[in-house]
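INFO batch 0412 | record 1 of 1 | parsing
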Amino acid sequence: MRVSTSQIYDTGINGITRNQASMLKTQTQITTGRRVLTPSDDPVASARALVVTQSQQLNQRYLENQKQAGEQLAFTESTLGSVTKLIQNVLDTTIQAGNTGTVDDAGRKILARELRSRYDELAALANTQDGEGNYIFAGFNTATRPFPTAAISSDAAGAPISSVNYAGDDGKRALQVESSRVMPVNETGSDVFVRIRDKNGNLTNENVFESLGNFITALETTPFDAAAFKTTYDASLGNFNAALDNTLRLRTAAGSRMAELESMKTTAGDRDLQYESTLSDLQDLDYADALSSLSKQQLILDAAQKSFMAMTQLGLFNKL
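INFO prediction complete | emitting tokens
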């Protein structure tokens, strides 16, 4: 069979081009560290890698949400700790004021001034903002000051009165921290300061601001009426105990969610490492094999180029 010069030329060029393409692909694999550069390189591995990558991305979003939820819960738990300490102080002062046998009018005024300071501190805690300026006890209305009017003022007769107006809502902010777990990250001002629950979880009629304001009024009222004071004292003592139980319950719940998050973080972190390992097995390059292949491809290319040069130099006069 006769072979034309053009056939020889085309065959040689095509062979060299194929070898160069193979070398380029191997060099790209070595540069990127990836065995699978396109789906056609390994359709099965590519399909599995896509599924694993999507699962990993979802898991990483859960990790981010867990971190964010942990930060918000930690801040809320810490603030509830301050509220708990403050209410305990109010309770101790109330018990001290109830000892009418040793506390006179001057002593009651001193205790009233102290409780006024505690009232202002409680109002400040109720209006706590996080690092981004969000009011943590405002529900969904994080840009709204939840207790804008929490203060003790005086009526027309000069008697102290407590004014409370909750401007937030009952929204529970939550984050998806696992595929089947949506975690609340806040407590509302109404649950912490307005709708107080006792240690059994039952709603009381107590509003901690109004209860504190009423007790301050009883301490400052003159002339002192022992019977009226006893009535207010008994009610206030019960209300402050309920408020203390309530904040302890809410703080414990926040702490429990934080502990749950730590367990989730560990699991999600382990899962992320497993995804990385699986993707490495599916996609990553065996450098020893790749370098060996590159050497062989270089030898083949050199041989193809030499063969092509030899064939193109053949002619009738070379035979003479």
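INFO post-check: The mean pLDDT is 82.
INFO record closed
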